[in-house]
Amino acid sequence: MKRLLQLLFWVSFAAFVTWDLARSPAIDRFAEPPLIAAGSGAAASGGHCSAAPQ
Questions:
Q1: What was the pLDDT predicted at 52?
Q2: Distances in Å between the alpha carbon of 19 and those of 4, 5, 24?
């Protein structure tokens, strides 16, 4: 039973990843904002889940 559940999980996971890659637009990694802008002169953009509301 444990092997069946493991197999079901991995098949479902692979099917989800395949579906997601097929349905999502291509990512232009050069147009993405920098995650860490230390020393680059560019300000990092994006939010943070624990940022205080303004």
A1: 56
A2: 22, 21, 9
